[in-house]
Structures are given as C-alpha cells and as structure tokens.
Amino acid sequence: MAVPSTRRLRGLRKALLGLVGLAGFLVVWQLVPTLGLINPQYLPYVTDVFARLAEESVDLAFWRRLGATMKSWAIGLTVATVAAVVLGTIVGLVSFLRRATHTVVEFLRPIPSVALIPLAVLMFGIQMEAALVIIIYASFWQVFVQVIYGVADVDAVARDTARSFGLTRREQLTRLVLPTALPYLMTGVRLAAAVALILAITAEMVIGNPGLGTLIELSRSAGDSVGLYAFVVVTGLLGLAVNLVFRFVERRTLFWHQSIRGEQAR
Fold first, then answer.
1. For 172-208, what is each residue's pLDDT tens digit?
2. Longest dimension (CA), the chain
3. Most CB within 10 Å of its CB: which of 74, 110, 157, 201?
4. Residue 114, SS3?
5. Backbone phi, psi, residue 161, to 5°
C-alpha cells in the first residue's frame, strides 16, 4: 500500500509544480504589456486573450475549424503510421533492403515538408488532400526510421534460438520481432503525432484550406492580435493534449518494458 501512495504523492507533486509554473508564466505575460515593456498591440493582455477564448468556445464555426484541423491530423497520422509500419518491417527484416535503401532514406528524410507545398497544391488544389501530402510525408519518416531500428535490434542469439526451436516466421514476428520493435514504434508514433499537428496547422496557414491555421492567418491579416494569440494558445493546448494522450497510451502499452518500469520506480 505504501508504494501506490508514494507514487500518487509524487504524481500530485509533479502536477502541482506544473500548475505553479503555468501560473508564473501567465503572470509574467500579463505584467509585460502592463509595465509597457512590449506594446499591447503586439503582445495583448493575457486576460483579453482568455476572454476571447471564452467567446470562441461558444462559436460553432470555431469548433468546425478545430474539427477540420484534427480530421486532417488524424487521417494523415494514420496513413503515415500504417505505411511506415509495413514498409519499415519489410526493410528492417531484410538486411539487403536495409543497406540498399539507406542512402535514399537519408536523402529524402531531411527534405522539409513545406518545400512540397507547391507540388501538393498543383496536384490537389486548395483541398484537404494537399495538406495530407505534407502531413503524411513529415510524419512517415518519424515512424519508419524507428521501426527499422526496432526490427533490426532483435537479439541475434534470441533469433537463432527461435529458429532452433522451430518457430515459424509468423511466430518469430509476433513473439520476438514485435516485442522488440514495439518501444521504438511507440516512440515514433508519439513524435509523429506532434509533427503531424504542426504540419496540419502550417499547411492550413500556407495553403488556405479550412482549419485553425486559417484562423491564425486571418487574424494576422486583419491586425487582430488578441484573436491571433487566442488561436495560437489553442494550438499549444492541442499539442499538450496530444502528447499527454500518446504518453498515456505508451505507458499502458509498455508497462512491462524496463524504460517505463524505471520511470515508475523513480
């Protein structure tokens, strides 16, 4: 009973410290324009920003734009994850393919997704599909590389032992490769989720399809700094929520792994 209580107290302390840090940040934000350090036209009062957020929260159009952003994010992340898992597993299992594709991967992976926006617009116009091209391209590499490393990290002795015991390829994949690659996969998906959200909003700002990015761009062009900061705060809250959800799923899925058990023991 003592261990769960200690963990609960540790979690409560961590959450409390997080709230204190957030409160300090908001106080500093409010003081900077109040003391005239920055013109409120460029950094509005935090009270005005949160008042605007309260107004937007009862506007159906705001929620539709938010839903459009999350729809692009979810579709892009799902397609990228499925494609990366399938291709990463095949490439990771075949050493010839791993060596043959290494240079191509290292060439394609650093290309910024925003550089593909003109091509995506030419192909699909100002539609969600154009944004999906950017989201899928950026998030695919996060998962793909992690899966390759995870599959290739299978212990050679364990692989030989599995063969000597006569395990079929399917049994080796489910009992040996998957448990080894799963921590890599979960890390890759969590990173890809954040990248996909960033690219979803960036694509909306540049391409102009409906979403939070469009609201930010419209506020900027109208000189509405309060609205601009309010929508930026929403994107920050979305990023925080996405990270918390994927960290929760990661901890639940990898409860048996030493990395998660080590975190819980500290």
1. 888 888 888 899 999 999 999 999 999 999 999 988 8
2. 75
3. 201
4. helix
5. -65, -40
